[in-house]
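Researcher: I'd like a candidate sequence for this fold, 456 residues long. If you have to choose between options at a position, lean toward the conservative one.
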């Protein structure tokens, strides 16, 4: 579950703007636009020659990424439009996840959709309307992404959707000033994290603050906690077996992982800083859960990179700012499991211009254009796991940290598990996780989720 990505404002580093503006200018004079000049296209348009002349062609895109985050996407396609002559029609809808299924089942899908979960991709493929990725797109994904990403964009062995943006969930938010004042150090192992929590509790401060309230999706932050612990205590291979239901949801390994989470979230001496006792976690909105860090009422909050947008306006998010984050450590400093999420470029039309845009979209060229556009127009808030990303195009400190984590050569990435399991099991996961916070036992919680797993 990605949560509500409401931009409440946070200070960004200086915009990188010049490179993006020059790139757009360099592509002007291509096949598109109203310029009647006979001047030859600039050298930058040479990168687009393989797509051919697409003048008069329109490609529709449908997504759930709305203003202001939509503008960097719209602008990222400008070089493609200018150099090929095609028109990209980007439309966004907050009800995207429901409406894209309605449109697909009605035989009225867009040319391309930006799909945020592998589970939704599989549902769309099941409608018979999704088109397999082209050879050029597949080659780009093979070159620029970890193989796990291609698997997430595949259904029953067929590669359909190239990855695009990404987020990192394995983060812990903290106050650099509070850490410096108390002499606390960033932990590099799970044992260090335990010791740090004990040290903080010894000062009278509740080390952790948490909140899992999210309307109909209440409970999802616990699922992220548990999945992060599964990756660290059971390992990526067992994590994969668990998500695929090759081992029961209530097997020994997930039981140990949820108990490990309980060592933090159900410990009266550890939580819930600024809000109340353990049960207050269930009624605390996830958007507000980390805010007591700013008042020194708690010291740690485990939440994804997108939480940067939930700090109050004026909060400086930086290593030497009001708040920052560190990588949630594993059992050893050398282990680098990463839980995250992302988006997938899903095609419903096989026309040459649609495949051409998808191929461009999967390239390192597009990744850097998009990073520059996001940095300039919205102050950041976007990264990708595309290894061709030049991190110099990132200006936001959390983006830089997240890219360092997800692109680390030792990182072992796994996509959010609750976004990949059957809907009935996921719904039970949220519901029972909430009951667990308010007193239900680990065994009862996992037994009920296991019982909700569809028979086929």
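Model: Candidate sequence:
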């Amino acid at each position: 579950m990605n949560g509500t990505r409401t931009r409440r404002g946070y200070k960004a580093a200086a915009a990188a703007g010049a490179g993006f503006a020059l790139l757009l200018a360099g592509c002007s004079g291509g096949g598109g636009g109203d310029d009647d000049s006979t001047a030859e296209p600039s050298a930058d348009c040479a990168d687009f020659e393989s797509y051919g002349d697409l003048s008069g062609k329109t490609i529709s895109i449908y997504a759930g990424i709305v203003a202001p985050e939509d503008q960097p996407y719209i602008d990222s396609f400008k070089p493609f439009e200018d150099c090929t002559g095609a028109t990209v029609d980007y439309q966004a809808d907050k009800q995207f996840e429901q409406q894209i299924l309605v449109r697909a089942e009605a035989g009225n899908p867009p040319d391309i959709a930006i799909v945020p979960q592998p589970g939704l991709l599989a549902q769309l493929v099941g409608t018979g309307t999704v088109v397999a990725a082209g050879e050029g797109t597949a080659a780009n994904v093979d070159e620029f992404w970890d193989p796990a990403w291609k698997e997430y964009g595949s259904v029953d062995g067929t590669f359909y959707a190239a990855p695009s943006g990404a987020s990192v969930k394995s983060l812990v938010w903290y106050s650099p000033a509070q850490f410096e004042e108390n002499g606390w150090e960033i932990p590099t192992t799970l044992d260090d994290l335990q010791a740090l929590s004990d040290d903080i509790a010894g000062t009278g401060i509740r080390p952790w603050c948490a909140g899992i309230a999210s309307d109909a999706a209440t409970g999802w932050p616990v699922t992220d906690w548990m999945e992060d612990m599964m990756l660290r205590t059971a390992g990526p291979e067992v994590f994969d077996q668990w998500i695929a239901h090759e081992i029961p949801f209530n097997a020994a390994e997930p039981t140990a992982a949820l108990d490990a989470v309980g060592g933090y979230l159900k410990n009266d001496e550890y939580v819930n800083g600024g809000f109340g006792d353990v049960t207050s976690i269930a009624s605390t909105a996830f958007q507000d859960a980390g805010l007591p860090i700013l008042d020194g009422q708690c010291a740690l909050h485990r939440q994804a990179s997108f939480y940067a947008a939930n700090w109050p306006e004026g909060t400086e998010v930086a290593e030497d700012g009001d708040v920052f984050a560190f990588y949630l450590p594993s059992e050893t400093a050398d282990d680098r499991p990463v839980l995250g999420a992302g988006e997938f470029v899903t095609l419903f039309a096989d026309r040459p211009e649609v495949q051409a845009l998808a191929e461009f979209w999967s390239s390192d060229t597009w990744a850097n254009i998009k990073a520059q556009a996001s940095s300039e127009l919205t102050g950041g808030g976007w990264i990708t796991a595309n290894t061709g990303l030049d991190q110099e195009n990132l200006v936001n400190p959390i983006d830089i940290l997240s890219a360092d984590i997800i692109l680390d050569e030792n990182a072992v990435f796994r996509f959010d598990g609750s976004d990949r399991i059957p809907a009935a099991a996921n719904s039970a996961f949220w519901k029972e996780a909430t009951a667990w916070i308010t007193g239900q036992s680990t065994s009862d919680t996992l037994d009920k989720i296991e019982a909700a797993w569809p028979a086929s």
